């Protein structure tokens, strides 16, 4: 099957020498071709170039993109979309003055979601997660990482991971799964959380590995949640079973999470609202992608992660949605792109790299998605008629996506 998208006003995010990630100054580099065509063969990008150089060829399908821009699909490297209930009552409590930590201490927050999620059947959770996935797909997301973490018991965590496996099997989106058994400390383990850590290590991880359910292992390493020692023990156990670390760090405090993540070669350390110079130093020269979650900082009114300082220090930066019911009830990557520019002062080029190639790297798939490059999956969207690609972050709140293509097929 050969498809051509022709008369593209501007084809954005092209790479002729594909990189696995972009860091420092490279983040400002975004390849584009004006008045372009894009050829897809068997679901992959076969070639692209300027319309004037398109020779005589035959195609099974022609798509006319006159006046429209084509961009690589967003890659969302941090989500928790398998959950049962929304948490708008806690949202109101927060407006009235309670902090996220205070709500968690009284058994709300993650434990509130865990209770409802434990009561839901696998099929119900699948249907709810499918709807969320379908919604983000329609607004431009083409690859996504999904965590467990609202189970917090062996059976419940397995149930969530089986839902993610079913999503992988049934969705055209590229999906990676992440086992986050260490997301919260169940009430019955309060005061002796090391016993819960033992349960994660001795029972959950072997069962998850046995069914091949997780690509990554995650820990919420932060003040009031899991300690650096808990994190190190859990990551070591996961690594033994072939799961690469990808962790939550430094949301509430300078927790040591970045250092422990880098030590265990995490593919990413995520959140990073609390960053000192030592954290930035420690990331230099590592394979770990610092990942900022603008939706969470926005929703919880947290300090902003120092994205510019990181880029100026030569680091790569990725930005993902953190779609979850407690701290970021939206998976809208177009909005994350806008926040990257408006709140974190990334240029549109940096912001586009942060939400496509670098997030693809943060889930280990930047060799197959995240840019327009020959041989990569044909995952892209065609915009509505817009004046320029800078309009994408500029017109925040507006859906600019008109047509979606994943693996070369239109959805
Ligand atoms: O990434 N920080 C930890 N986990 C989630 C929030 C989970 C929740 O509140 O339900 C996050 O923000
Ligand atoms: Fe998260």
List the helices and strands and how they pair.
Layout: E1 2-14, E2 31-41, E3 44-50, E4 61-64, E5 68-72, E6 74-76, H1 88-95, H2 100-105, H3 110-119, H4 122-138, E7 141-147, H5 154-170, E8 174-182, H6 193-210, E9 216-221, H7 228-240, E10 244-249, H8 257-263, E11 268-271, H9 277-283, E12 289-292, H10 294-300, H11 307-312, E13 318-319, H12 333-342, H13 348-355, H14 357-361, E14 380-385, H15 391-394, E15 401-406, E16 409-410
Parallel strand pairs: 1-4, 1-5, 6-7, 7-8, 8-9, 9-10, 10-11, 11-12, 12-13
Antiparallel strand pairs: 1-2, 2-3, 5-14, 14-15, 15-16
Helix pairs in contact: 4-5, 5-6, 6-7, 12-13
Bound molecules: N-(iminomethyl)-L-glutamic acid and fe (iii) ion.
Structural commentary:
The protein has 15 helices and 16 strands. The protein has 411 residues and is an alpha/beta fold. The chain has two domains: 2-72 and 371-410, Urease, subunit C, domain 1, CATH 2.30.40.10; 74-362, Metal-dependent hydrolases (TIM Barrel). It is globular, with a radius of gyration of 21 Å. Strands 1, 2, 3, 4, 5, 14, 15 and 16 form an eight-stranded mixed sheet that branches. An eight-stranded parallel sheet has the order 6-7-8-9-10-11-12-13. N-(iminomethyl)-L-glutamic acid binds next to helix 3.
Task: Quickly describe the structure.
This protein is an alpha/beta fold and 411 residues long. Helix content is 35%, strand content 23%.
């Amino acid at each position: 099957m050969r498809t051509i998208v022709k008369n593209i006003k501007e084809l954005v995010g092209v790479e002729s020498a594909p990189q696995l990630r972009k860091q420092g100054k490279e983040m400002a580099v975004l390849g584009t071709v004006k008045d372009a065509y894009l050829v897809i063969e068997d679901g992959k990008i076969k070639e692209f170039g300027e319309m004037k150089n398109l020779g005589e060829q035959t195609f099974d399908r022609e798509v006319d993109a006159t006046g429209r821009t084509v961009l690589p699909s967003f890659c969302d490297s941090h989500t928790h979309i398998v959950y049962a209930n929304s948490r708008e009552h806690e949202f109101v409590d927060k407006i009235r003055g309670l902090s996220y930590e205070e709500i968690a201490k009284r058994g709300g927050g993650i434990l509130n979601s865990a209770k409802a999620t434990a009561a839901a059947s696998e099929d119900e959770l699948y249907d709810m997660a499918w709807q969320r996935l379908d919604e983000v797909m329609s607004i431009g997301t083409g690859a996504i990482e999904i965590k467990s973490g609202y189970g917090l018991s062996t059976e419940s965590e397995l149930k969530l991971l089986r839902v993610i496996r079913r999503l992988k099997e049934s969705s055209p989106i590229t999906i990676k799964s992440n086992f986050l058994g260490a997301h919260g400390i169940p009430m019955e383990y309060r005061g002796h959380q090391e016993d819960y850590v033992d349960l994660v290590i001795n029972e959950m991880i072997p069962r998850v590995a046995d069914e091949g359910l997780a690509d990554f292992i995650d820990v919420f390493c932060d003040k009031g949640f899991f300690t650096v020692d808990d994190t190190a023990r859990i990551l070591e156990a996961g690594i033994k079973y072939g799961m690469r670390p990808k962790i939550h760090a430094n949301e509430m405090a300078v927790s040591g999470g970045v250092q422990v993540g880098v030590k265990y070669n995490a593919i990413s350390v995520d959140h990073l609202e609390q960053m000192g110079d030592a954290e930035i130093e420690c990331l230099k020269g590592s394979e770990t992608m610092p990942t900022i979650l603008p939706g969470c900082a926005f929703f919880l009114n947290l300090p902003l992660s120092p994205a510019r300082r990181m880029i100026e220090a030569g680091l790569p930066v990725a930005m993902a949605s953190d779609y979850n019911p407690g701290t970021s009830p939206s998976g809208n990557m177009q909005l994350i792109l806008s926040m990257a520019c408006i709140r974190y002062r990334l240029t549109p080029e940096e912001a586009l790299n942060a939400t496509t190639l670098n997030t693809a790297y943060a889930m280990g798939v930047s060799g197959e998605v995240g840019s327009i490059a020959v041989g990569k999956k044909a995952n892209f969207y065609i915009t509505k008629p817009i004046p320029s690609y800078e309009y994408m972050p500029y017109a925040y709140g507006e859906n600019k996506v008109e047509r979606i293509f994943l693996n070369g097929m239109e959805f």
